Amino acid sequence: MKLCAFIRPASLSAAHENLRELGREGMILAGGTALHFMQDHTPVTAVDIMSLGLSFIREEGDYYNIGATTSLADIQRYRAPRWAMHEICRRISTHQIRNISTIGGNICRVFPWADLPVILLAMDARMVIYTGSDEEEFPADEYFKEQPAKRFLDGNILTSVKIPQLKAHHGFGSIKVVRAEAAFAQVTIAALLELDGSTIKTARVAAGGAIPFPRRLPSVEAALGGQQANEETFKEAAAQADADVTWRGREGMTPEYSRHLAEVTIYDALERAAAFARGRNE
Amino acid sequence: MMKNPQTVTFTLNGERKTFITRPDEKLLDLLRREGYKGTKFGCGQGTCGACTVLMDGRAIYSCLLYSMQAENRDIRTIESIGTHDKPSEFQQELIAAGAVQCGYCIPGMIMSAEALMKAEKTYPEEVVREYMDGNLCRCTGYEKIWDALQTVLARREAANKAKAKS
Fold first, then answer.
1. Cross-chain Cβ contact A46/B58 below 8 Å
2. Chunked in runs of 10, what are the mean pLDDT values of chain A (282 residues)?
3. How many of the other CB atoms lie within 10 Å of CB of A59?
4. CB atoms within 10 A of CB A259
5. Least CB-CB distance to A96: which of B4, B26, B60?
6. Alpha carbons A245 and A188: distance in angstroms, whole number
7. Any chain A CB within 8 A of the CB of B127?
8. CA of residue B166 relative to chain centroid, distance
9. Residues 6+ away with beta carbon under 8 Å from A93
10. Model ipTM?
């Protein structure tokens, strides 16, 4: 990809119009960090959306609404009751990149190593997309069903991400395993548990890194529902992940090593989520 | 001759300037072309930190920013920090600690430390590591750079505390 022109639209509707007219020759630019790594040399026009007022974090009803061009650094630094997004943002790359990279850029085109889709799948987030005349919301399960980049070919623009506020009996845990501090994930796991006393009422668990595309782990979730939130349950549930995905080897790891690493990480994420939920109950 | 020339205007080291650039030119390349060669080209892919500059007070990799993205922003390079005759506090401590070998990473290290000292009032190790872990040094093993920085931070933290008391 080669930038041949640069447009700074004055409004969201103008940006949509620019992108619609440009078609495949247009490219939304927010933080822009990913664009430097696109290997093809197709000439494109960058449509810069950084000045359109899409950098914000707001409490709106039962959600935190995060503007699409909000930097990962701002999400990392934000603090509020029942806020759990800062942990994973601290683990994404280096602080120089977090200062530029945006939540929207991380999820408009999903790379296999992306961490945020894993988190948003577990959190049951909702993505808000501007279509030129309207805004449409997509639950994470639908949004991440396939490569989301396809959704933006006709000029549509991701405007915000809505994260449900965790309730008192909810617990969230995310773990990213890396070889070196700022490296891409070997495996990333996120878990959301809803507890009723010591019983798991509902669970959402998602994985990324050692699989081609981030996804939920329904077999793990099924093994958790209705069970006691304890070590034994978490171990048994973590062992079910093989039914959902085939772990792949990479960076010197064998598939078997990835599988074992993922199983251990699922267990740890569940422990963390349960501790979070218990802490909230106290 | 530059293909597809455009202009970009931003504040560079306190002075508002307009530059001719190309849509695909990186800020790093623009800065070095314009003579700001203290900002180093290292990996060119946002890993080593040698090209770190401040944008609106925050450290960024200038190799991962298109120059056009700097429009109306405040950019600071190593040239704004100290001079040969009047080095900054951290630069003086780096010299005193013998922390510089080839020196290629040092401008980036200094800019990350600047971002840290501008943004934070206290400097727990975890926070310092967070600000500095995007800068690699292949010569020194980091120890002396770390020591020099800790000397400056300890002094600043004590001064901040004294100021808060008075």
1. no
2. 92 96 94 86 93 97 97 95 89 94 95 92 98 95 95 94 94 92 88 96 96 96 97 98 92 91 97 89 40
3. 13
4. 20
5. B60
6. 14
7. no
8. 32
9. A72, A101, A182, B46, B134
10. 0.94
Cβ contact B112–A96 (<8 Å): yes
| Whether the Cβ atoms of residue A7 and residue A29 lie closer than 8 Å to each other | no
**B chain contacts of residue A43, beta-carbon cutoff 8 Å:** none
Closest residue by Cα to residue A59 from A76, A44, A81, A74:
A81
- A2-48 is classed CATH 3.40.630.30: no
CATH architecture of A170-278: 2-Layer Sandwich (3.30)
Residues of B in contact with A93 (CB under 8 A): 46, 134
CB atoms A96 and B49 under 8 Å: yes
Nearest CA in chain A to B64: A33
Contact A90 B130 (CB under 8 A): yes
Query: pTM to 2 decimals?
Result: 0.94
Domain A57-164: give its CATH architecture.
2-Layer Sandwich (3.30)
The reply to whether B51 touches chain A by the CB within 8 Å rule is no
